Amino acid sequence: MKKPYTIPEILKTHKRIAVLGLKPGHMEVSNQIFHFLIDKGFDVVGVNPKFAGTYIAHKPVYGTLSEIPGQVDIVDVFRASEHLHLHVDDILGMNPLPGVVWFQQGISSEEVGATLEAKGIQVIQDYCIAVAYSTHKPEIEG
Questions:
Q1: Domain range spanning residue 37?
Q2: Number of domains the chain contains
Q3: Which residue in 42, 51, 74, 78 could disulfide with 30, CB within 3.0 to 4.6 Å?
Q4: CA distances from 60 to 13, 64, 100 (A)
Q5: Which residues contact 104 (CB under 8 A, 6 or more apart)?
Q6: Mean pLDDT, residues 88-93 taken together
Q7: What is the mean pLDDT of residues 38-48?
Q8: What is the reported pLDDT for 2?
Q9: 102 or 142, which is more confident?
Q10: Cα separation of 73 and 99, whole Å?
Q11: Would you say residue 1 lies in a domain?
Protein backbone atom coordinates (compact mmCIF):
# COMPACT_ATOMS: atom_id res chain seq x y z
CA MET A 1 0.00 0.00 0.00
CA LYS A 2 1.23 3.49 -0.79
CA LYS A 3 1.95 5.91 2.03
CA PRO A 4 -1.35 6.66 3.79
CA TYR A 5 -2.85 10.10 3.52
CA THR A 6 -3.16 12.14 6.68
CA ILE A 7 -6.67 13.02 7.88
CA PRO A 8 -6.34 16.64 6.66
CA GLU A 9 -5.07 15.44 3.25
CA ILE A 10 -8.02 13.06 2.93
CA LEU A 11 -10.61 15.68 3.80
CA LYS A 12 -8.99 18.34 1.64
CA THR A 13 -8.57 16.24 -1.51
CA HIS A 14 -11.22 13.48 -1.37
CA LYS A 15 -14.46 15.27 -2.26
CA ARG A 16 -17.03 12.59 -3.19
CA ILE A 17 -18.37 10.62 -0.24
CA ALA A 18 -20.83 7.72 -0.10
CA VAL A 19 -22.56 7.41 3.28
CA LEU A 20 -23.23 3.70 3.77
CA GLY A 21 -26.12 3.13 6.15
CA LEU A 22 -27.73 6.53 5.63
CA LYS A 23 -31.18 6.83 7.21
CA PRO A 24 -33.74 9.60 6.88
CA GLY A 25 -34.77 11.54 9.93
CA HIS A 26 -32.98 14.45 11.55
CA MET A 27 -32.31 12.50 14.76
CA GLU A 28 -30.30 9.83 12.89
CA VAL A 29 -26.56 10.37 13.31
CA SER A 30 -25.92 9.23 9.74
CA ASN A 31 -28.33 11.92 8.51
CA GLN A 32 -26.70 14.60 10.67
CA ILE A 33 -23.24 13.72 9.32
CA PHE A 34 -24.64 13.57 5.77
CA HIS A 35 -25.90 17.16 6.12
CA PHE A 36 -22.66 18.25 7.81
CA LEU A 37 -20.66 16.95 4.84
CA ILE A 38 -22.96 18.69 2.37
CA ASP A 39 -22.56 21.95 4.32
CA LYS A 40 -18.77 21.56 4.10
CA GLY A 41 -18.93 21.30 0.30
CA PHE A 42 -18.58 17.57 -0.24
CA ASP A 43 -20.47 15.77 -3.01
CA VAL A 44 -22.38 13.23 -0.95
CA VAL A 45 -24.62 10.29 -1.88
CA GLY A 46 -26.41 7.86 0.38
CA VAL A 47 -26.44 4.07 0.36
CA ASN A 48 -29.14 2.02 2.04
CA PRO A 49 -31.17 -0.69 0.27
CA LYS A 50 -34.24 0.16 2.37
CA PHE A 51 -34.30 3.69 0.93
CA ALA A 52 -32.89 3.08 -2.57
CA GLY A 53 -34.46 5.31 -5.21
CA THR A 54 -35.34 8.05 -2.74
CA TYR A 55 -33.59 11.33 -2.10
CA ILE A 56 -32.27 12.81 1.12
CA ALA A 57 -31.36 16.50 0.99
CA HIS A 58 -31.95 16.33 -2.79
CA LYS A 59 -29.20 13.70 -3.06
CA PRO A 60 -29.88 10.20 -4.43
CA VAL A 61 -29.86 7.13 -2.21
CA TYR A 62 -28.57 3.92 -3.81
CA GLY A 63 -29.14 0.31 -2.81
CA THR A 64 -25.47 -0.68 -3.05
CA LEU A 65 -22.13 1.04 -3.37
CA SER A 66 -21.47 -0.54 -6.76
CA GLU A 67 -24.62 1.16 -8.17
CA ILE A 68 -23.16 4.64 -7.65
CA PRO A 69 -22.07 6.13 -10.98
CA GLY A 70 -18.57 7.58 -11.15
CA GLN A 71 -15.73 7.82 -8.70
CA VAL A 72 -16.33 7.72 -4.94
CA ASP A 73 -13.36 8.91 -2.92
CA ILE A 74 -14.53 7.94 0.59
CA VAL A 75 -17.04 5.38 1.82
CA ASP A 76 -18.23 6.63 5.22
CA VAL A 77 -19.70 3.64 7.07
CA PHE A 78 -22.61 3.73 9.51
CA ARG A 79 -23.11 0.01 10.07
CA ALA A 80 -22.61 -2.02 13.23
CA SER A 81 -19.15 -3.57 13.49
CA GLU A 82 -20.57 -7.08 13.35
CA HIS A 83 -22.11 -6.33 9.92
CA LEU A 84 -19.04 -4.82 8.26
CA HIS A 85 -18.02 -8.12 6.66
CA LEU A 86 -21.31 -8.03 4.72
CA HIS A 87 -20.09 -4.97 2.80
CA VAL A 88 -16.62 -6.10 1.76
CA ASP A 89 -17.73 -7.52 -1.61
CA ASP A 90 -19.78 -4.39 -2.35
CA ILE A 91 -16.82 -2.13 -1.55
CA LEU A 92 -14.44 -4.25 -3.62
CA GLY A 93 -16.99 -4.29 -6.46
CA MET A 94 -16.77 -0.53 -6.85
CA ASN A 95 -15.04 0.62 -10.01
CA PRO A 96 -12.81 2.40 -9.41
CA LEU A 97 -12.16 1.44 -5.81
CA PRO A 98 -12.51 4.21 -3.22
CA GLY A 99 -9.31 5.64 -1.81
CA VAL A 100 -10.61 5.55 1.76
CA VAL A 101 -13.14 3.57 3.78
CA TRP A 102 -14.01 5.40 6.98
CA PHE A 103 -15.68 3.54 9.86
CA GLN A 104 -17.51 6.03 12.04
CA GLN A 105 -17.03 6.38 15.78
CA GLY A 106 -17.71 3.09 17.59
CA ILE A 107 -17.32 1.04 14.40
CA SER A 108 -14.30 -1.14 13.71
CA SER A 109 -13.14 -4.50 12.39
CA GLU A 110 -9.48 -5.44 12.18
CA GLU A 111 -10.34 -8.28 9.78
CA VAL A 112 -12.36 -6.12 7.38
CA GLY A 113 -9.80 -3.33 7.65
CA ALA A 114 -6.96 -5.70 6.74
CA THR A 115 -8.92 -7.10 3.78
CA LEU A 116 -9.56 -3.62 2.38
CA GLU A 117 -6.02 -2.41 3.03
CA ALA A 118 -4.68 -5.46 1.17
CA LYS A 119 -6.52 -4.08 -1.89
CA GLY A 120 -4.89 -0.66 -1.52
CA ILE A 121 -7.73 1.10 0.29
CA GLN A 122 -6.85 3.26 3.27
CA VAL A 123 -9.04 2.43 6.28
CA ILE A 124 -9.86 4.73 9.18
CA GLN A 125 -11.63 3.09 12.12
CA ASP A 126 -13.65 4.28 15.09
CA TYR A 127 -13.40 8.00 14.30
CA CYS A 128 -16.20 10.44 13.46
CA ILE A 129 -15.57 12.20 10.14
CA ALA A 130 -17.24 15.39 11.45
CA VAL A 131 -15.01 15.42 14.54
CA ALA A 132 -11.99 14.85 12.30
CA TYR A 133 -13.05 17.73 10.05
CA SER A 134 -13.59 20.07 13.01
CA THR A 135 -10.29 19.07 14.61
CA HIS A 136 -8.34 19.72 11.40
CA LYS A 137 -10.46 22.56 10.01
CA PRO A 138 -7.57 25.09 9.64
CA GLU A 139 -5.51 22.55 7.68
CA ILE A 140 -8.46 21.55 5.48
CA GLU A 141 -9.89 24.98 4.74
CA GLY A 142 -6.61 26.91 4.87
A1: 7-141
A2: 1
A3: 78
A4: 22, 12, 21
A5: 29, 33, 76, 77, 78, 126, 127, 128, 129
A6: 97
A7: 97
A8: 66
A9: 102
A10: 5
A11: no
